[in-house]
Each structure stands twice: as C-alpha cells, then as structure tokens.
Design goal:
With 136 residues, the chain is mainly α. The chain contains 4 helices and no strands. Helix 3 packs antiparallel against helix 4. Keywords: Heme, Iron, Membrane, Metal-binding, Transmembrane, Transmembrane helix.
C-alpha cells in the first residue's frame, strides 16, 4: 500500500510555483519599470497625478494587483521555506510562521484595498487638500 505524502506534494507544488511565479514577476516588474521610468518624461513624471491616472484604468489596477499578490505569495513562500529550514524548535517555527502569515495578510488586504478604492478626488474633501487636477 502506498502512503500519501501530502507534505511532499505541497513542497513540490511550492517549488514549481516559485519558478513559475518568478518568471511572471520578472515580466510584470520590467513592464512596470518600463512604463514608469522610460515612457514619457520618465522618473520626472511620477507624481500623485501619474499614479491616479494609471489607477483610473482597470488594466493597470489588475497589473499592479497581480504584481502585489504574486510578489507577496512568492516572498512569503520563500521566507516560509527559510523558517522551516532554520527554526529548530516547533514553537519558534510556529510563532515565526504566524507572524509571517499575519504580515502577508495585512499587506495583501491593505494593498488590494488601496488599489481598488483609490480616489484621487474624494467628493467631500476640502478644496485646498485636493490635487490640482481635481474639479471642486
């Protein structure tokens, strides 16, 4: 009778995910850098209005969301592997991984909220606090 090796399969899938997500992240990051630094006026054009203009497009929202999620999952998986390799005691390993997962969750939830709820011109904001391109 063959035993199920769930942990072994998880580690295999984790290893494959790291390679695939790394390739996708390279494409996402270089695309992000190219658009932000090379197109138009380059780094001198990056300001609040530039970000507001980008996030007005669903394409860039999804692009940045994919970059955030993949980078966070990729990095969390890497740190999880390091914790598993170097933390000697089960309690230490459990505490470190709990803190890691908490940091992951907070970053992903807050980042996702920022991307999808970003409004450069909130309707009830005082006019002196609004960006110059907002109509009062």
């Amino acid at each position: 009778m063959r035993r199920k090796t769930t942990r072994g399969n998880f580690e295999l899938y984790s290893w494959v995910f790291m390679r695939a997500s790394g390739v996708v992240l390279v494409a996402l990051i270089f695309g992000h850098l190219f658009v932000n630094l090379m197109v138009g006026d380059g780094v001198h054009a990056i300001d609040f209005a530039f970000v507001a203009g980008k996030w007005a497009s669903p394409f860039w929202q999804v692009w940045d969301l994919l970059m955030l999620w993949l980078a966070m999952i990729h990095g969390t998986n890497g740190v999880r592997t390091i914790i598993n390799d170097y933390a000697q005691r089960d309690l230490t390993r459990g505490v470190l991984k709990s803190l890691l997962y908490l940091a992951f969750t907070l970053t992903v939830v807050l980042g996702t909220l920022v991307i999808f709820t970003f409004d450069p011109c909130p309707p009830e904001a005082p006019a002196e606090l609004l960006a110059s391109f907002c109509t009062a």
